[in-house]
Amino acid sequence: MNRSTTKKRSTPKSRTLLASVRKAYERFLKIRGHPREISLGFALGLLVGMTPFMGLHTIVAVAVAALFKWNKISAAISVWITNAVTAPIIYSITYLVGARMMGLKKAFALKEINSLSAIHDLILKTPEIVWAMMVGGMVIGLPLAVIGYYIAFSITSRYQEEIKAKIARSKEKLVHKRQQRKAKAAGVDVDSREFHAAISGDRNPTDAKADPSTITSDQ
Questions:
Q1: Which of 55, 217, 212, 50 is nearest to 138 (CA)?
Q2: Does the structure show a pLDDT above 80 at 20?
Q3: Burial class (CB in 10 A: 0-12, 13-18, 19+), 45
Q4: 213 vs 189, 209, 210, CA distance in Å?
Q5: How many C-beta atoms lie closer than 10 Å to residue 92's C-beta?
Q6: Are 50 and 141 in contact (CB under 8 A)?
């Protein structure tokens, strides 16, 4: 009974999280701009998202992105890697990494970080935790940002190339239809394959219907 109840309660939350990730991904794909600028903004957001100042993530990421003329929207999207669900896990890891590098003794047990309010209370009680999280956040955030940059660049470049190809095909079809209408109005009987070759610049469609008697030989 308890297991089934737990599954029923967790399912809507997981669906909501997946729906949010999907919407963010779709929004990310539709961002306008050069793939490099979009990817730099995305990488910046990941790095800022690893810092312990959760309430200021978006403001900081957008401000820095604007300063360097990177994409502000992608930066604002990627900072949400740290949210109400992931913050306890991410901050636990960043603290442990930072505390190890700074030589600090563990100021709390991981089980104590089970909510945002618990994190806030711990930071107020022990300010050195902030420095440990900052150090750990940079250590984890820098390679994460580099990886995120290349992933974002690959995704955005591929998506934009697909959109360009789709637009090119649409324009080609439009030109094809216009050529067919002109030929029909002129009384020229030219099939689709010939017109496709014509608009591609391979050959003149009227050559296929040329009168053999008009062709002269050099011999």
A1: 50
A2: no
A3: buried
A4: 19, 12, 9
A5: 20
A6: yes
Question: Which DSSP state fits 50?
Answer: T
Mean confidence (pLDDT) of the chain: 78
Phi, psi of 34 (to 5 degrees): -75, 140
pLDDT at 193: 53
* Per-residue model confidence as pLDDT tens digits over 39-58: 999 999 999 999 988 889 99
pLDDT score, position 76: 93
CB proximity list for 35: less than 8 A, separation 6 or greater: 152, 153, 156, 157, 160
The four Cα atoms 107, 108, 114, 116 give a dihedral, to 10 degrees, of -20
Residue 208 confidence class, pLDDT cut points 50, 70, 90: very low
In degrees and rounded to multiples of 5, residue 107 shows phi and psi of -90, -10
With residues binned 3-state (H G I as helix, E B as strand, rest as coil), the percentages for the chain, rounded to 5, are: 80, 0, 20
| List of residues 6+ apart from 117 with CB closer than 8 A | none
What pLDDT is recorded for position 50?
A: 95
Instruction: Indicate the domain borders of the chain.
Output: 27-166, 168-208
CA dist 44 and 64 (Å) reads 8
Give the residue carrying structure tokens 């995120």: 148
